[in-house]
Amino acid sequence: MSETWTTTDIPDQRGRVAVVTGANTGLGYETAKALAERGASVVLAVRNAEKGKQAAATMPGNVTVQALDLTSLDSVRAAAAALRSRFDRLDLLINNAGVMYTPKQTTRDGFEMQFGTNHLGHFALTGLLLDLMLPLPNSRVVTVSSTGHRIRAAIHFDDLQWEHSYGRAAAYGQSKLANLMFTYELQRRLSTHGTTAALAAHPGMSSTELARNSPAALRLPLTWLSPLITQTPAMGALPTLRAATDPAALGGQYYGPGGRFEVKGHPRLVTSSPQSYEVAIQQRLWSVSEDLTGVKFPIAQPAQARP
């Protein structure tokens, strides 16, 4: 596999439809722009439609906007319905949008903000759109995680919504661990269909607005060190783009920067934390997520994978 994979390695995407969440800025913007440049019809699924339109105007080709607020399941359902009315196929779903280190708050449905936005919103969106992907060879769901899935991270089934205690980093870690566990369980369920694949990616340390909610004690050192330890959003988007478009990429794989400690560099295959591969927890999280969102996927758990 190439050690210096770039956007020039993206195959022709003409005739393909891609939905990218959080695509008006940062990593999502760079992901959407690169796909549009290679000929894909791209939908920017964003909370602020006006900002989405401004972003779309800077991209080539067929780029449109869909309002989507991942903090509201009503909005997720409305966005999915709108997309289904516009398209009879979906080749790429890039679950990119996210929040990081937010103060303790909840989504409109009462979920802890980071878990509700980063995991449950994308879980629901994927389930509501997946049947548009299942008939299509080489269709892919790519979910963006983070190296933060290793930091104080666990799936706290006894307090998923952090009602009894709250830590910004731990809550973020849980949401990003959930992204990976969702990907691995989704791929297990997709494996019997042989068409759609689920992959994950992380951007390393990229200079985006995502860390704006970091505590002040962290923001100042990061500002000083940023030139040394971060990379541009365009570079940070490469792992996602490789997972989405590289013909050699396989379902269940995880891509990240190839440099030291996966902080920066060209994308390559990486591994996630040992707990992220625990099948029983993946399956329990899936079941809980279906219950919380009310979204049932059009694919069943393989009989051989059941405990």
Determine the fraction of residues in helical runs and give it as a percent range. 25-40%
Number of DSSP strand runs = 8
- Provide the domain count: 1
Mean pLDDT: 92
* Secondary-structure element string: EHEHEHEHEHEHHHEEH
Strand neighbour order, sheet with most strands: 3-2-1-4-5-6-7-8
Number of continuous helical runs: 9
Largest sheet: 8 strands, mixed
| CATH-defined topology | Rossmann fold
Quaternary structure state of the chains depicted? single chain
- Based on secondary structure, the structural category is alpha/beta
Distance between the termini: 35 Å
Strand content: 5-15%
Rg estimate, integer Å:
18 Å
Dominant shape: globular
Keyword list:
Rossmann fold; NAD(P)-bd_dom_sf; 9 helices; eight-stranded mixed beta sheet; Short-chain dehydrogenase; 12% strand; alpha/beta; SDR_fam; 307 residues
Write the layout of secondary structure elements.
Elements: E1 17-21, H1 26-37, E2 41-46, H2 49-56, E3 63-67, H3 73-86, E4 92-95, H4 113-129, E5 140-144, H5 168-190, E6 197-201, H6 216-229, H7 233-236, H8 238-245, E7 254-257, E8 267-269, H9 279-293
Parallel strand pairs: 1-2, 1-4, 2-3, 4-5, 5-6, 6-7
Antiparallel strand pairs: 7-8
Helix pairs in contact: 3-4, 4-5, 4-9, 5-9
Family: Belongs to the short-chain dehydrogenases/reductases (SDR) family.
Keywords: Oxidoreductase
Organism: Paractinoplanes durhamensis
